[in-house]
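quick one: flavin-adenine dinucleotide bound model?
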Amino acid sequence: MIDFTLTEEHLAVQGLVKNFCAKEVLPNIRERDRAAQFDPTLLEKMGKADLLGLCLPKEYGGAGMDYVSLGLTCEEAEYADTSVRVIFSVHVGLVSLPILTWGNAKQKSQYLPGLASGKRIGAFGLTEPDAGSDVVGIKTTADRDGNAFVLNGEKMWISLADVADTMLVFGWTDRAKMKARDHSGLTAFVIERTMPGVTTHTIHGKLGVRAGNTGSISFADVRVPAENVLGEVGEGFKIAMFCLDQGRFTVASGATGLIRACLDACLDYSHTRKTFGQPIGEHQLVKEMIARMVAGFEYSRLLWLRAAWLKNIGKPNTRETALAKWIACEQSETAAADAVQVHGAYGFSDEFPVERFYRNSKGSSIYEGSREIQKLMQADYALGLRSDKPGRRELPVPIG
Ligand SMILES: Cc1cc2nc3c(=O)[nH]c(=O)nc-3n(C[C@H](O)[C@H](O)[C@H](O)COP(=O)(O)OP(=O)(O)OC[C@H]3O[C@@H](n4cnc5c(N)ncnc54)[C@H](O)[C@@H]3O)c2cc1C
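yep, here:
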């Protein structure tokens, strides 16, 4: 039986995030976006509201919720602003859940309670100045030296780079494999900001997500204890792909929230703005744009819900998650462009939020695997050029 009913718990978390954003985000989002100013106090407030440990088990201080809850959270967060959803994508999707799934007992007890409470903030460092989609093109090296690895390299376009203290970072532990582009030479590390040789820099002048923090991280002879390897040496690529399965899910559900924000803004405007003696919502071509937003929202939500369901039962979901990400992001770009159009010249200024939605919508078709990469994945699955390996590791099934 297929049941689309949201549980009381789902509705409660949806309401919690909505209220949180109404109080802490929406009152000053236009000014922060204008000033390109990240609000670091938001992280502390999110921690206090129990939002950062949402899907972590209670034994680590989390709320033990399922992945539908995470999707609904991301929807509501991006309904307010993309920068808020990015926090969930990175801190929860790309860092906390991977440590929960790949960490050993010591790492889990060392990192997860702090990540759940917001005392620790996570960042994910895969992209570099010369390599984004082409993961094996990264150049960060991690040479073994006794009981440690020495990291050198630079990560670029890293969300929360300036505020994170717990960074999940990928580098080559085998230089011969790096030369041969053999991804089994990549390893994942949990790096602490306090380790000597770690520096971060803010990226200015972004098109969108201006109220979010994006930066670069440099590693200059950073000595990382071997116990900070996540998973095994050589499992870095596998872990990075696992991380993206979770991050893409949060981007897909967030983009669905952005479509809904565009729709709601247009409904209000279409009832009040009049041309040729009638509300613009009564013109067929405006209706067409609204209809496209309705459809985009509905099928984006269905797609991320299916991915959430697979995650909840511990089944592989790379294909379904990537599909949800591609479609929801593409639909959110269309919805945001239409939303500006519906608002006419007013949509061209930040008097209305749709201008911000338009700029913010572009990023999601670039980060966490560009639109082209998601399309290639779908074709490769269909053509039998790609399949999920038996015995791969999935997210733990939520136990409440
Ligand atoms: C706001 C923002 C936040 C980000 N946060 C993070 C973060 O926290 N951590 C992190 O590690 N990274 C982050 N990124 C980086 C992001 O993941 C990369 O930008 C993304 O993976 C694409 O890589 P690239 O920019 O190097 O583009 P490239 O890989 O250079 O691609 C350029 C263009 O070529 C296309 N292309 C590439 N290869 C192919 C192919 N085989 N076939 C067809 N087309 C192809 C791409 O789709 C794209 O259109 C962030 C980026 C942004 C904009």
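The mean pLDDT is 97.
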